[in-house]
Design goal:
By secondary structure, the protein is of the alpha+beta class. It contains 9 helices and 11 strands.
């Protein structure tokens, strides 16, 4: 199952990456093609300007003027080699009183300064004759022998918009890929939840019949005079099985929350474990003086503590010490479970809560997953590995909101 999920995620990432690359290439080619067309238009415009400057009485003035007047989208300026601008077109000037003008000398001082700075910002102090060689947005126009003008043009609004389009498209594609990825992950998680809940409910149902039978047998043994010590222990274990069945039945539905005192709940949950683990494991509780009240499902929280304790015992291979500490601060009350086991590598601090993760030869790897679900999904708290060092031990921390 985990391999299938990883393969599906990898396939989704690859397909998304290919789609993004294809769209970016198409968009980039469109931008390049439009830029090439604008360059061709400006070459024609420059040639028409040159022909008009050299025109004699037999030239077709109307045709040349028509070519020049057709440029109503590409910003363009005409200047000499000393940056003295003579004409311009399609610029949005800061002083709107000159909106319909195209001759530089007729502009207000503010607009003249704006166009001059804009032209010089392209090349700084570099002569325009050299800029023609370095920047393809400059075109040299020869008016007559030894005298040239320089046409500088900028990208049109459409081209600038299309230049940004690939980046916008990339962001949109990444967002869509993330949404699709989250949808797939959530769908898979929902499917896992349904399996988890169904298995829990069915387990509780299947346990019901043998538990009822065992209760009847305990009563029968008590009635036949079997030693009370034996029947008492049997009764405890039968009640324990009944508690476990009740816990499984609560998975998948919102359990009833009641105000419980944290220290008392921790102490009760560990009392059962003390008599059922090795004598070589020492459990020490460091309970805070102020026993805070927390809204809990007592049976589910006891399940959390038992799972953490069992996990610690397994990590220590049946020998070591477990320290349970409670406390509080302004935002939460907390419980820390520290063991002297083999520890967890830092890279696995989050992985240990994933279904199927286990370091034991025999095990389903569901204990810590169940703990995380109970703490976070049902109680609105959080659980995490506070600290761990291989060969030294691990500390798990549970926090509940005040």
């Amino acid at each position: 199952m985990k391999m299938e999920i990883r393969t599906g995620r990898l396939l989704l990432i690859i397909v998304s990456a290919i789609a993004v690359i294809v769209f970016l290439l198409i968009s980039n080619n469109l931008v390049k093609e439009l830029a090439r067309q604008e360059r061709e238009r400006m070459d024609i415009w420059a040639r028409a300007t040159e022909r008009l400057a050299k025109a004699d009485v037999d030239s077709d003035f109307e045709f040349l003027l028509a070519i020049i007047s057709q440029n109503n989208s590409i910003p363009v300026m005409i200047s000499d080699a000393d940056f003295n601008i003579s004409e311009f077109r399609n610029y949005s000037l800061p002083d709107k009183t000159d909106a319909d003008k195209s001759v530089y000398d007729e502009l207000t001082p503010r607009n003249k300064e704006y166009l001059t700075k804009r032209l010089k910002s392209i090349g700084g102090d570099t002569p325009l004759a050299e800029m023609v060689k370095k920047n393809n947005h400059f075109i040299e126009v020869e008016l007559f022998d030894g005298v040239s003008q320089y046409i500088y043009y900028e990208d049109s609004t459409l081209l600038r918009s299309l230049s940004l389009y690939p980046y916008v498209q990339l962001v949109v594609m990444v967002i869509l890929a993330m949404i699709l990825y989250m949808a797939v992950v959530n769908t898979k998680r929902a499917e896992q939840n349904r399996v988890w809940v169904g298995l829990s409910k069915e387990t509780a149902h299947q346990l019901g019949t043998p538990i009822s039978s065992l209760m009847a047998w305990v009563e029968y043994l008590q009635a036949t005079g079997v030693e009370p010590e034996i029947t008492g222990e049997l009764d405890k274990d039968v009640k324990r099985l009944s508690t476990i069945a009740d816990r499984f039945s609560k998975i998948g539905s919102q359990p009833d929350m009641e105000l419980e005192y944290l220290n008392d709940t921790v102490r009760t949950s560990l009392d059962y474990m003390r008599s059922r683990i090795s004598d070589r494991v020492r459990i020490t509780m460091h309970l805070s003086d102020d026993d805070h009240g927390v809204r809990l499902s007592r049976s589910l929280f006891e399940w959390v503590m038992e799972n953490l304790t069992k996990n610690a015992v397994d990590a220590m291979q049946g020998e070591g010490s477990i320290d349970i500490t409670t406390g509080s601060d302004r935002s939460c009350v907390w419980i820390e479970v520290r063991d002297t086991g083999k520890g967890i590598a830092r890279k696995n601090f989050k992985t240990v809560f994933n279904p199927g993760y286990t370091t034991k030869k025999r095990g389903w790897g569901l204990g810590l997953t169940l703990v995380k679900r109970i703490v976070e999904d049902y109680h609105g708290g959080r659980i995490f590995v506070k600290e761990s060092e291989p060969g030294v031990g691990t500390t798990f921390r549970i926090e509940f909101p005040v």
